[in-house]
């Protein structure tokens, strides 16, 4: 990986001898509240170190002792010139409300966990919060879909890791497939032990239990199925009931695919690929500190680049503004490397 900090992103000659550079820099201090997964602390810490950010970590209580050992190993490897205090470990849940008041010290909060956790943290702090509350991911099977491909993708999106935030929760099927194609998908899902719930059209057609809500994240071997009239109806459904995480279309019609890819306003939108690909490691980011459905700053899997912001550096030779009479502006783009 190239050095992420201090990269020149844009270089402009404002006037003769007056050079402006837009450069990358760390956000500052991060507070990350995360779940009890063995690799979570290691991934988060490595990304924070690589991006030059200070870090406060609060892991799930079930991994308290593992996190303490991992924290000790990582901080002992940090050079003395930086100092082990770069990464702090918070061990008590009671400390979190007090930390969330430190908006003059902490620059960003990243909660990883349940909808309830994310909502609570947003309510308790003025610090910017990056993350996602729900992972309600859709797969839309269009009328031109290759059904063998559709079955592979739908099964992978649902059963590869059902508890993941990028697992499929709702399957949308074009109305022209409501006889044969839909039945093929249902047979495959049931064979894998998936519990099926229907929207109004599917539950009536197939006599299965109706889902109590389309905006529901099962996190298990269960999903909702509904029939839609076309790609535009699928897009409308996703915008109305989705969580802007990851949504997929399966189709052999490239024009329909492009409509879906450009009009679905989610952090990640796929064509003929499982939603499970929405992941920092699979995207080549090395790891991820979390997945963001926010529209400001980072979106989708957040790696090193998502933990950076920008600064402006101006190099002159005595220029003054003098009511804009003192400088003749050229605003000329310069090569990044001189």
TrEMBL record:
Q: Which Gene3D superfamilies match?
A: Aldehyde Dehydrogenase, Chain A, domain 1, Aldehyde Dehydrogenase, Chain A, domain 2
Query: Which reaction does this enzyme catalyse, per its entry?
Result: L-glutamate 5-semialdehyde + phosphate + NADP(+) = L-glutamyl 5-phosphate + NADPH + H(+); L-glutamate + ATP = L-glutamyl 5-phosphate + ADP
Q: Does the keyword Metal-binding apply?
A: no
- Give the GO biological process terms: amino acid biosynthetic process
Report if keyword Oxidoreductase is assigned.
yes
UniProt keyword annotations, A-Z: Amino-acid biosynthesis, ATP-binding, Kinase, Multifunctional enzyme, NADP, Nucleotide-binding, Oxidoreductase, Proline biosynthesis, Transferase
InterPro entries named among the record's database cross-references: Ald_DH/histidinol_DH, Ald_DH_C, Ald_DH_N, G-glutamylP_reductase_CS, GPR_dom
Q: Which residues form a coiled coil?
A: none
Which pathway is this protein assigned to?
A: Amino-acid biosynthesis; L-proline biosynthesis; L-glutamate 5-semialdehyde from L-glutamate: step 2/2; Amino-acid biosynthesis; L-proline biosynthesis; L-glutamate 5-semialdehyde from L-glutamate: step 1/2
Give GO terms: molecular function aspect only: ATP binding; glutamate 5-kinase activity; glutamate-5-semialdehyde dehydrogenase activity
Family per similarity comment: In the C-terminal section; belongs to the gamma-glutamyl phosphate reductase family.
Classification via NCBIfam families: PRK00197.1, proA
The name under which this protein is listed is: Glutamate-5-semialdehyde dehydrogenase
Q: Which organism is it from?
A: Liquidambar formosana (Formosan gum)
């Amino acid at each position: 990986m190239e050095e992420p900090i201090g990269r020149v992103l844009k270089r402009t000659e404002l006037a003769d001898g007056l050079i402006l550079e837009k450069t990358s820099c760390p956000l500052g201090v991060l507070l990350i509240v995360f779940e009890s997964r063995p690799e979570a602390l290691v991934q988060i810490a490595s990304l924070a170190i690589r991006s030059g950010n200070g870090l406060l970590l609060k892991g799930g209580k079930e991994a308290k002792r593992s996190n303490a050992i991992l924290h000790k190993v990582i901080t002992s490897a940090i050079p003395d010139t930086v100092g082990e205090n770069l990464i702090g470990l918070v061990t008590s849940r009671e400390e979190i409300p007090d930390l969330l008041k430190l908006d003059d010290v902490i620059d960003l909060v990243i909660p990883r966990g349940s909808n309830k956790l994310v909502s609570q943290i947003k309510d308790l702090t003025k610090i910017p919060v990056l993350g996602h509350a729900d992972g309600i991911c859709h797969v839309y099977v269009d009328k031109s879909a290759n059904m063998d491909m559709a079955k592979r993708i739908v099964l992978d999106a649902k059963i590869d890791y059902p508890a993941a935030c990028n697992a499929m929760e709702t399957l949308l099927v074009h109305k022209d497939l409501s006889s044969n194609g839909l039945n093929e998908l249902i047979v495959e899902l049931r064979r894998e032990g998936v519990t099926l719930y229907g929207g109004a059209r599917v539950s009536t057609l197939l006599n299965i239990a109706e889902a109590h809500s389309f905006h529901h994240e099962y996190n298990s071997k269960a999903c909702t199925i509904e029939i839609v009239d076309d790609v535009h109806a699928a897009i409308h459904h996703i915008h109305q009931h989705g969580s802007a995480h990851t949504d997929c279309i399966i189709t052999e019609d490239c024009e329909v695919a492009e409509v879906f890819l450009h009009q679905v306003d989610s952090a990640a939108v796929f064509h003929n690929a499982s939603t499970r690909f929405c992941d920092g490691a699979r995207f080549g980011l090395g790891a991820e500190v979390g997945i963001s459905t926010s529209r400001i700053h980072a979106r989708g899997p957040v790696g090193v680049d998502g933990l950076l912001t920008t600064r402006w550096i101006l190099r002159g030779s005595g220029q003054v503004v003098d009511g804009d009479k003192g400088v003749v502006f050229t605003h000329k783009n310069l090569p990044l490397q001189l």
